[in-house]
Design goal:
The chain is an alpha/beta fold. It is built from 11 helices and 13 strands.
């Protein structure tokens, strides 16, 4: 395929997704180069045989030049990035110019990422989504586990979906945790793992809570798709929660076979849903 012939630039954050993509490039013999983000990407993974360079978040200009020197044609942004304070960014001149240009228009993660995509593509590189390279990572619709959500869980999923859609429209977060009709928490800057830990303390007696994780309605499919993996299931189990509903066709599941097996072990459910907005 033509896409496989183009050199891929990978902007790698934390988690196992960058590793999954790099292993795919190796197996498919696709040429690639990685910009590994300091304090986010896993240093232990980046052996000398992986073509890569480490950069700080504030070194966008340096990153663009490295990609140009490496003749990168397509770019994937993948993995978790811990948002730093502006004091921690210490931007290079190009990054300073970038933030000056977008100004207050980029309130929220989605606005910043959309502006970054535009900036990358102004350098004659095309930003692609991980699902365009590895479509099997997209979660499928329906119940994936042996355990199924009961009536209460289904009601909690519906409530969580309603809240998550509104949360996404405001570009706040992707995840909501609901128990027995009560919203225990919504995702902010802390991310899903911390949300689960926090809400574990708020649960009442009876049926455990449910995590609902959706792509924001206005979100570009190429950036920051909702993702679950084995760590998500472990966190939910440790917090005493009983399942997760995630956006089918619009979210990623890393190591699907392992994730489903782990959920089955803990008697939890995973369901891929296609949300619909309630009409008033």
């Amino acid at each position: 395929m033509e896409t496989q012939q183009k050199k891929l630039g990978i902007i790698a954050g934390g988690g196992t997704l960058p590793q999954t993509l790099i292993e795919h490039c190796k197996k498919s013999k696709r040429d690639y180069f990685v910009l590994a983000i300091e304090n986010n990407a896993d240093r232990a993974f980046f052996s000398p045989d992986i073509p890569h360079c480490w950069i700080r978040i504030g070194q966008a200009g340096t990153g663009f030049k490295l990609f140009a020197d490496q003749h990168v044609q397509e770019v994937v942004m993948i993995g978790t990035i811990h948002r730093p304070s502006f004091a921690d960014l210490v931007p290079d001149l190009r990054t300073t110019a970038f933030f000056t240009k977008i100004g207050l228009k980029a309130l929220g993660d989605d606005g910043i990422l959309r502006a970054l995509v535009k900036e990358i593509e102004s350098e004659n590189m095309r930003v692609v989504g991980i699902h365009e390279v590895l479509p099997d990572l997209l979660i499928k619709e329906g119940i994936l586990t042996k355990n199924k959500p009961d009536k209460q869980a289904i009601a909690d999923i519906e409530r969580g979906t309603e809240v998550a859609l509104q949360l996404g429209l405001l570009d706040v977060g992707q995840s909501v945790i609901v128990q027995q009709g009560l919203v225990l928490g919504v995702e902010g800057i802390e991310g899903t793992d911390k949300l689960i830990e926090r809400c574990g303390e708020y649960q009442r007696k009876g049926a455990g809570a449910v995590l609902v994780k959706l792509r924001k309605p206005q979100q570009d499919m190429r950036i920051d798709l909702p993702t679950i993996g084995c760590r998500t299931i472990e966190k939910l189990h440790n917090a005493g929660m009983r399942g997760v509903a995630i956006h089918a066709g619009n979210a990623l599941i890393v190591d699907e076979t392992k994730v489903i097996a782990l959920a089955d072990k803990y008697k939890m459910f995973i369901i891929g849903i296609i949300p619909t907005e309630k009409k008033s």
